[in-house]
Write the structure tokens for this entry.
Amino acid sequence: MQKTEFKITKMDCPSEENLIRMKLDGISSIKHLDFDIPNRTLFVYHTSEADSVETAILQLNLGGKKVSTELVEDFEVTENTNQKKLLWTVLAINFLFFIIEMLTGIVSKSMGLVADSLDMLADSFVYGISLFAVGGTLVRKKRIAKLAGYFQMMLALIGFIEVLRRFFGTEKLPDFTTMIIVSLLALTANGICLYLLQKSKSKEEAHMKASMIFTSNDVIINLGVITAGVLVNWLNSSKPDLIIGSIVFILVIQGAIRILKLGK
């Protein structure tokens, strides 16, 4: 693999970074882009000659200039291994809490916990899909992010149907204690996942950004379910649980839309 350094004198903010990413995402030989905006420097890791990369950068008229190219051996193996370990970790955490929240949601009659468990399942699939993206081209990673977005959108629609069924049906009052305790545990787990993802050196790549969007949504959802548990006890009504279930799926759809934009 080769590493080529470019000086880009007009790269002052993330807007130029995004412009460069969009320009280069059709070049299949590119494995990774490392931006250093303060120093106006871009490092491109690629598997063939840098001519096509240099041409694309020059066409942007951002004052781009190739500085040097060198052979590197360890970047792809080390970086990909780190990504895979990270994704396997967050996948395991999310799948474990999918099982916990689904079982406790069914037992406690809580739509909020059931909804959150489905979101955890969606995350597990997303992280699994992202594992296939590690080491792939930028084009492949954006396609993976798009697939994750469509999958989350589908689960959200299924969730809305279940909320409507319960709203117009006759359901017992959810167990607010279980809702709060399990959601606090899930909140802790999602906080750990988000921290690990943010520490990743590859967090700017599309498939990793998708993973962080999912996990950020989960933190908000956990807080919502905890609030719903308090209101269920205070109002002696199941409506707060159903309302938070609806809000959960709205957030899921918003997250899916954001991820679909990353895949463009």
Observations:
- The first strand starts at residue 2 and ends at 8.
- The mean pLDDT is 77.
- Residues 75-108 form the longest helix (34 residues).
